[in-house]
Specification:
Blueprint: H1 2-18, H2 30-50, H3 57-70, E1 77-79, H4 81-92, E2 100-104, E3 109-114, H5 119-122, E4 130-134, E5 137-138, H6 146-150, E6 157-164, E7 167-174, E8 185-188, E9 193-197, H7 205-218, E10 223-227, H8 236-244, E11 252-257, E12 265-268, E13 280-284, H9 291-301, E14 306-309, E15 317-323, E16 329-338, E17 349-353, E18 359-360, E19 369-371, E20 377-379, E21 388-389, H10 397-404, H11 407-414, E22 422-423, E23 426-427, H12 431-440, H13 446-460, H14 468-488, H15 490-518, H16 520-530, H17 532-539
Parallel strand pairs: 9-10, 10-13, 13-14, 14-21
Antiparallel strand pairs: 1-16, 2-3, 3-4, 4-5, 4-6, 6-7, 8-9, 11-12, 11-16, 15-16, 17-18, 19-20, 22-23
Helix pairs in contact: 1-2, 7-8, 8-9, 13-14
Length: 541
């Protein structure tokens, strides 16, 4: 324990040494830090000496640190030696994978998305297949590190056993470090309006988008729809480079502000743009976060693009990884992002929590007003609020329950050939097929679970027999009501089925191709770009 004590004293002495480096920021209360460390050291020592059972000091310390970090925000985390070693091994193997997304089942892992030209794709596996063994290791109720088991060096082999429609197969997969494209689709739509879907901000995102824009320009591009919906973010540098495609050199894109002046940063564009005068509409929604919000916020503040869709997620916190003693590390939030107008895009306030300990959001009457380059009013309060609001269609609860329970997924797995849904180069769900889905699907709603609990309580109270007829009537009424809910949500069910079919048959590229012809937000964005007067009016040009 003396080593732990000496480390804490060293930490305090280091803080005292660093006081002058705080600049104008308020220095921490060094006495309070020292006091709390002494209390913790004493408590930790007494636990080891006095607790009735033998304890594991490393586990206790990790639990204490993890709980402490959780009181800050979800992004500040501690990484012990094992975490660091696992990350190192993944980096050394280039994270070569089997090229698929999957979910755990009792029988193994079930593939839910296949990446085009990835290991599973080249090995002939399909969405819905369940891998039961990997290199002879059973995955039934597997509780080990799946990522470590399935990943390996680029080009290495892995032998998998899998089930498809109750039949067993084997395949030899060649792991690949090829990542899914950040731009799964770019395409010219009507009247020379281009569409580009950007799904993530990876090291190649800016390059892929650059190539897409240049190829579309060669086809006579007159306006661009940049779809950032569902994009969770990624690398800050890629976001800055992408904004730079549309605005001049040396323009402010984003800044960060911290308690420490030394952590404050300003990020400017560094190159000449490739599409300075190209009209742009950026699509966002509640799942557009972080780097997506930096792009949307900057283009909005600089009056360079019309932002359309729904309010973005509001993730505006900056993390930095720092080393600790004995090979451990931690990632901690050090600052917040601000758009060129000065807006903070962070939505949840982890400093002010409610009675349940949950982070809070400000009320709309507390939002602050800022001005864009052309003087348009914009507001903070979390995320980027679009210039043209197109609220996302609320998903009926019966559809949410069906998706959570995998009902649509399982139904499509049961069909012999999904190509039967392709009609005139589009995906169509005939009424006959929907009726079949309606008859075969077993969706459980909360009321049914409550009814089961009621039946159990009646049995315990010896009332089951006398209430049998009433329970039967309730069952019948619930089934009729559930069927009615499904029919009312028919269009949403059909759309979800079409999305899944497109993803299975034509990968992520096919999903976005389907959306081009069936997504009202994309249609509205294209119409706005074709109406120059309305487009310029939004930007006050």
């Amino acid at each position: 324990m003396s080593k732990l004590y000496s480390i804490s004293r060293y930490f305090v002495n280091t803080l005292i040494y660093l006081v002058p480096l705080w600049g104008f920021a308020t220095p921490p209360n060094l006495f309070e830090i020292s006091k709390q460390l002494d209390i913790f050291n004493t408590l930790f020592k007494e636990i080891q000496l006095n607790f009735v059972d033998e304890t594991n000091p490393a586990e206790l310390m990790t639990a204490a640190i993890t709980e402490m970090m959780s009181t800050l925000d979800p992004y500040s985390v501690f990484m012990n030696e094992q975490d660091i070693e696992s990350a190192r091994l993944r980096q050394e193997t280039d994270q070569a994978s089997i090229g698929a997304k999957y979910k755990l089942t009792s029988n193994g892992i079930q593939l839910v998305e296949i990446y085009k030209d990835g290991a599973c794709d080249r090995g002939g596996l399909l969405v819905g297949d369940t891998i039961t063994k990997a290199d002879g290791i059973s995955l039934e109720n597997y509780n080990g590190d799946l990522s470590a088991l399935l990943s390996g060096s680029n080009g290495t082999e892995i032998l998998v056993s899998f089930q498809r429609k109750a039949k067993n197969f084997e395949a030899k997969l060649i792991r690949s470090n090829k990542e899914p494209s950040a731009v799964p689709l770019f395409q010219m739509m009507e009247n020379s309006v281009g569409y580009v879907a950007l799904t993530q901000f990876t090291p190649n995102s800016a390059f892929e988008l650059d190539q897409a824009i240049r190829l579309l320009k060669n086809e006579g591009l007159s306006g661009l729809v940049l779809d950032l919906r569902g994009n969770p973010g990624g690398l800050l540098g890629q976001a800055i480079d992408i904004v730079n495609f549309f605005i001049p050199k040396n323009e402010l894109v984003v800044s960060t502000k911290s308690n420490l002046p030394s952590q404050n940063q300003v990020y400017l564009t560094k190159k000449e743009p490739i599409a300075l005068d190209l009209p742009v509409v950026v699509l966002i929604n509640g799942r557009s976060a972080s780097a997506s919000e930096i792009v949307a916020g900057a283009l909005q503040d600089l009056d360079r693009a019309v932002i359309m869709g729904d309010r973005s997620y509001g993730k505006g916190l900056v993390q930095q990884q720092k080393p600790l003693a004995y090979g451990t590390q931690f990632k901690i939030t050090i600052s917040r992002y601000y758009t060129p107008s000065g807006r903070c895009i962070q939505a949840l306030d982890y400093r002010n929590r409610n009675d349940k300990g949950e982070a809070t959001k400000r009320n709309s009457n507390e939002f602050q007003e800022f001005k864009t380059k052309n003087g348009r009013p914009v507001f903070d309060g979390g995320g980027v609020f679009p210039d043209v609001l197109i609220p996302e269609e609320s998903t009926p609860s019966i559809v949410k329950q069906a998706l959570e329970q995998g009902v649509v997924f399982d139904y499509l797995n049961s069909l012999p050939d999904l190509n039967m849904f392709i009609q005139n180069e589009n995906i169509s769900i005939p009424e006959k097929e929907f009726e079949q889905f309606l008859e075969q699907s077993k969706i459980t709603i909360p009321s049914e679970e409550m009814l089961v609990q009621l039946e159990s309580a009646l049995v315990n109270d010896s009332l089951a027999e006398s209430m049998d007829q009433a329970i039967k009537i309730l069952h019948d009424q619930l089934n009729a009501s559930k069927r009615e809910q499904i029919i009312l949500a028919k269009s949403t069910f059909k759309r979800q089925m079409a999305y899944e079919i497109a993803l299975r048959l034509f990968y992520l590229e096919g999903l976005y191709k389907y959306k081009i012809g069936n997504d009202s937000a994309i249609s509205e964005a294209m119409n706005l770009l074709l109406d120059k007067g309305r487009y310029n009016n939004y930007l006050k040009k």
